[in-house]
Design goal:
The complex is a heterodimer of chains A (398) and B (317). Helix content of chain A is 39%, strand content 17%. By secondary structure, chain A is of the alpha/beta class. A seven-stranded mixed β-sheet of chain A has the order 3-2-4-5-7-6-13, with helices on both faces. A six-stranded mixed β-sheet of chain A has the order 10-12-11-14-15-16, sandwiched between helices. In chain A, helix 3 runs parallel beside helix 4 and helix 9 crosses helix 12. By secondary structure, chain B is an alpha/beta fold. Chain B has a single domain, classed as Rossmann fold (3-Layer(aba) Sandwich). Chain B has eleven helices and eight strands. The longest helix of chain B has 22 residues. The chains are: A alpha/beta (398), B alpha/beta (317). At the A-B interface, helix 3, helix 4 and strand 9 of A face strand 1, strand 2, helix 3 and helix 5 of B.
C-alpha cells in the first residue's frame, strides 16, 4: 500500500474522509467549535452524492446523540462529532449509549470547558467523558485521526464488544492544522469494516424491547457485563490494529513509545503535546545527554496499565502531563490518577510526578517542557514518598 | 381533504392485543386504556420510541415487557430525537437496499406531559420542524405522576399537586395549562388531533389517519391518573367523558390547517360535574369554580369561532 497518494488534510477533514469511507448511514450532529468543519465536510460529501447518508440537523447535542442512539438501535452505521460544551450536554446520553451497547462512533475535537467560555484546546471535555463507558482513543497526527475512525468501527461493531467509541484529536492544534494524509478508499475500508449488523435492532418482524427498567435484581449484572465488554475491547483493539497494519501498512499500539529503548526518564502525554515533547527530546534533552523518552497514551479507555507499568518500572523518574484538572481530587490531573493507581496495583515504586499544563489553549513551550524535565530529574534517587503532593502548574501566572 | 372518512364502530377495532396485560400500571389508569387502543390502531408494523415516564417504567420491568412492538426507551427529554434517529435510519437503509423498499415501518414516539410539554419540548420542536415522518403521541395526565404528582406545564388552573399544594397562601396551581396544540400547530404540521379514552372509535380513527400521513403528526391524549387526580379507579372513563361533555376537553383534529371538532357537544354540562369527582379540585370554592367555568366558556367560544359555527353548545344545567 506504500506510495499511495497523500492529500493535505486538516485533522477534521481527515476524519470526514474516513467517515465517508466507512459508508455511514446516518450523521447526527450539531455545530460546535472546533468540531464544526468535520460535519461541514461530511454534509458537502452528502450534498455532492459522494456519500449516501441521512443527515439529521438536530437542534442540540443532546438530541444529536439521542438521534444517534435511535438510528443505531434501528441498525444503521452512525456517526456524530462534538466538543466541549456539546460533550457536556451529551453527557446524560453518553452513559445510555454505552449501556445499551450501541456501536456509535463519535469524533471529538477537544476543547476547554466553560467558564470562562474558551474555544481553545485542552482535555477537559475528553476527561469528563472518561467514565461514561465509551472506548476512548486520542490521536496525535492527522493520519492517525483518519485511521482511528476506521479502527473505531472495527472495535465498536465487534460482537464481543458492542460499545460506542470516541476518537479524539486536539482542537485547533490538529483539527485546523494541515498535514499530509493518505486517505483510505471506501472499497478497502469496507473490506476491513464490512457493513454487518452485529447488534440487536428494532424490527417489527422480530420485536425487542430496548432500554427497559432494571430493578436492583438485574441492574448490577448489566454493569458487570459492560466491564467485561471493556476488557474485550482491549483484545479487539490489539487484533484490529494488527489486521490494520497488514492491510494498510500503518501500525498503532495502545501506547506509543518514543526513544524509550535506553531511556532513564520519561514524560507521559496524550495528544498533540506529545509532538512538542518529541521535538524537545531530540533537539534539547538528548543533546544535553539526558536519557529522556516519551510515553504517549493513545488508548485511554480501556486503560493500557500493564504496558505502561512495564516500562515505567525500569525508569528513574517519570512526569505525567495533564491538560485537564480534576478539582479537589487526591491526584490533580486525571491521566496522573490513572497512572498512579496502575503503579500502586502493579507494585511500581518509580517516583511519578504530575504537571498540569496548557489549559484553555495556553501553549506548552520548550521552556515549559524544560521545567517539567528538570522537576522529573530532581526525583532521581528519591522515593515515591518524596513526590510533591500537588501537581506543578506549568506556565500559569500565580 | 374534506372527504368524510367512514366512521368506525367498536367492531372495526382489531381484537388482537399488541399491548400485553400483566404490566404494573395502576388500576383504572387512563394511559393503559390509551396504550391498548393506540397499539391496536397502529398495527404490527410500527416501532415505538418512549420517553421516560409512567408508561415506560410500568410496562418494561426487565426481564418482562408489555410491548409486542419493537420498542425503545432512551431518556426523558428525547423521545422525539430518538424517533428522528430511527426514522432517518430506516430511510437511509431503505434507500441503500439494506431493508426492502416496500417494507412498512411506522415510527411512533410516545411521551407524557412532562416529557412533552416541558423537558422534551425542544426535541419535539426539532422533530416537527425537520419534518420527520413520525407520529408523536402525548398522554397528558396533567402532572409529573411518575415521580408522585408534581405540577407540570400541563397542570390545569387551581389543581392541587404535591408541588402546588393547597395551604394558607396557595390554592393549588395558579397558572393556566400550556397550549401544546397551539405550539405544535405553529410548526404547520400536516395533522394534529386530540383524543380521549372515553371515545375509543374517535381515537382509533385519528391514530390510523395520523400514522398514514406523510410527515410529522401529533396526537394529544387526555389521560386521567387515578392516584394523581384523586379519583375512583372505576370512574376513569366517566371522568374522561365528563371532560368532553363539560367542554374542559374538546376532541378535534387539524388536517392541513383545516379545523374540525370530531365530538360535537350540543348541550354542555357545567364544569362542576367534572371537577367534583376529583380530589385534586376538592378545595375549590363556588367562586373558584365559577372562574374555571368562565375560562372554559372562553375556550369554547374560541373553538366555535375557529369552526365558524356552534359545535360546542351552551351550558345547560
Amino acid at each position: 500500500m506504500a506510495g499511495k497518494k497523500k492529500l493535505p488534510l486538516s485533522g477534521n477533514t481527515a476524519i470526514a474522509y474516513a467517515v465517508k469511507a466507512a459508508d455511514v448511514d446516518v450523521i447526527s450532529a450539531y455545530p460546535i467549535t472546533p468540531q464544526t468543519t468535520i460535519v461541514e465536510k461530511l454534509t458537502e460529501f452528502v450534498a455532492n452524492g459522494e456519500l449516501d447518508a441521512e443527515v439529521i440537523h438536530v437542534e442540540s447535542e443532546h438530541s444529536a446523540l439521542s438521534a444517534a442512539v435511535g438510528a443505531s438501535a434501528a441498525g444503521a452505521r452512525v456517526f456524530t462529532a462534538s466538543s466541549s460544551q456539546g460533550i457536556a450536554l451529551m453527557y446524560e446520553i453518553m452513559f445510555i449509549a454505552s449501556s445499551m451497547r450501541l456501536p456509535i462512533v463519535m469524533a471529538m475535537a477537544t476543547r476547554a470547558l466553560s467558564a470562562p467560555i474558551n474555544i481553545w484546546n485542552d482535555h477537559s471535555d475528553f476527561m469528563a467523558a472518561s467514565d461514561t463507558g465509551w472506548v476512548m482513543m486520542m490521536a496525535h497526527t492527522n493520519q492517525e485521526a483518519h485511521d482511528d475512525i476506521i479502527l473505531a468501527y472495527k472495535i465498536a461493531e465487534h460482537p464481543d464488544v458492542l460499545l460506542p467509541v470516541i476518537t479524539a484529536i486536539d482542537g485547533y492544534f490538529m483539527s485546523h492544522t494541515i498535514e499530509p494524509v493518505e486517505p483510505i478508499e471506501r472499497e478497502e475500508a469496507l473490506k476491513f469494516i464490512p457493513k454487518k449488523v452485529t447488534w440487536s435492532v428494532l424490527d417489527p418482524d422480530n420485536p425487542v424491547t430496548m432500554g427497559p427498567l432494571g430493578t436492583p435484581e438485574w441492574y448490577y449484572e448489566f454493569k458487570r457485563q459492560q466491564h467485561e465488554a471493556m476488557k474485550k475491547a482491549r483484545e479487539v483493539f490489539d487484533e484490529a490494529t494488527k489486521e490494520f497494519e497488514k492491510v494498510f501498512g500503518r501500525r498503532y499500539e495502545p501506547v506509543e513509545y518514543f526513544m524509550m529503548d535506553d531511556a532513564e526518564y520519561a514524560l507521559v502525554a496524550m495528544g498533540s503535546v506529545a509532538g512538542n515533547v518529541k521535538a524537545y527530546i531530540v533537539k534539547e534533552a538528548r543533546k544535553r545527554g539526558i536519557k529522556l523518552g516519551l510515553i504517549r497514551v493513545k488508548l485511554f479507555r480501556p486503560f493500557p496499565a500493564e504496558e505502561i507499568m512495564e516500562v515505567i518500572s525500569n525508569l528513574k523518574a517519570v512526569g505525567v502531563i495533564d491538560r485537564a484538572l480534576a478539582f479537589g481530587s487526591s491526584y490533580g490531573g486525571p491521566l496522573y490518577g490513572d497512572i498512579l493507581s496502575a503503579a500502586y496495583t502493579r507494585g511500581v515504586d518509580t517516583p511519578i510526578v504530575n504537571f498540569v499544563a496548557g489549559l484553555g489553549g495556553r501553549p506548552v513551550t520548550f521552556r515549559d517542557i524544560k521545567a517539567m524535565v528538570d522537576a522529573t530529574l530532581a526525583l532521581d534517587g528519591k522515593t515515591r514518598k518524596d513526590v510533591p503532593k500537588e501537581p506543578y502548574f506549568i506556565g500559569v501566572r500565580e | 381533504m374534506s372527504t368524510k372518512p367512514k366512521i368506525p364502530t367498536i367492531w372495526d377495532i382489531p381484537r388482537e392485543e399488541l399491548f400485553a396485560p400483566g404490566h404494573r400500571m395502576c388500576q383504572g389508569c387512563g394511559a393503559a386504556i390509551l396504550m391498548r387502543h393506540i397499539t391496536k390502531a397502529l398495527g404490527k408494523d410500527a416501532i415505538i420510541v418512549e420517553a421516560t415516564g409512567c408508561v415506560e417504567v410500568t410496562t418494561t420491568v426487565y426481564p418482562q415487557t408489555a410491548w409486542k412492538h419493537p420498542w425503545l426507551h432512551i431518556a426523558f427529554e428525547n423521545a422525539a430525537a430518538g424517533a428522528s434517529g430511527v426514522e432517518a435510519a430506516i430511510k437511509a437503509m431503505k434507500r441503500k437496499g439494506v431493508i426492502p423498499k416496500d417494507k412498512k415501518v411506522k415510527v411512533v414516539a410516545i411521551g407524557g406531559d412532562g416529557g412533552t410539554f416541558d423537558i422534551g419540548l425542544q426535541a419535539l420542536s426539532g422533530m416537527l420542524e425537520r419534518r420527520h415522518n413520525v407520529l408523536y403521541i402525548v398522554y397528558d395526565n396533567e402532572a409529573y405522576m411518575n415521580t408522585g404528582i408534581q405540577r407540570s406545564g400541563a397542570t390545569p388552573y387551581k389543581a392541587w399537586t404535591t408541588t402546588t399544594p393547597v395551604g394558607k397562601v396557595w390554592r393549588g396551581e395558579w397558572r393556566p395549562k400550556k397550549d401544546i396544540m397551539g405550539i405544535v400547530l405553529a410548526h404547520r404540521v400536516p395533522y394534529a388531533a386530540t383524543v380521549n379514552p372515553a371515545y375509543i372509535t374517535d381515537l382509533y380513527m385519528k391514530v390510523r389517519k395520523a400514522v398514514e400521513i406523510e410527515g410529522p403528526t401529533f396526537i394529544h391524549a387526555f389521560s386521567p391518573c387515578t392516584p394523581g387526580w384523586r379519583i375512583d379507579p372505576a370512574l376513569t372513563v366517566t371522568v374522561s367523558r365528563l371532560a368532553v361533555q363539560t367542554g374542559v376537553w374538546i376532541n378535534y383534529e387539524v388536517e392541513n390547517g383545516e379545523f374540525r371538532v370530531t365530538t360535537p357537544v350540543p348541550k354542555r354540562k357545567p364544569v362542576k360535574e367534572y371537577l367534583r369527582l376529583q380530589g385534586r379540585f376538592r378545595h375549590l370554592t363556588e367562586e373558584e369554580i365559577a372562574e374555571i367555568q368562565r375560562m372554559v366558556d372562553e375556550e369554547v367560544e374560541r373553538i366555535n369561532k375557529l369552526v365558524g359555527k356552534t359545535v360546542i353548545g351552551p351550558v345547560v344545567e
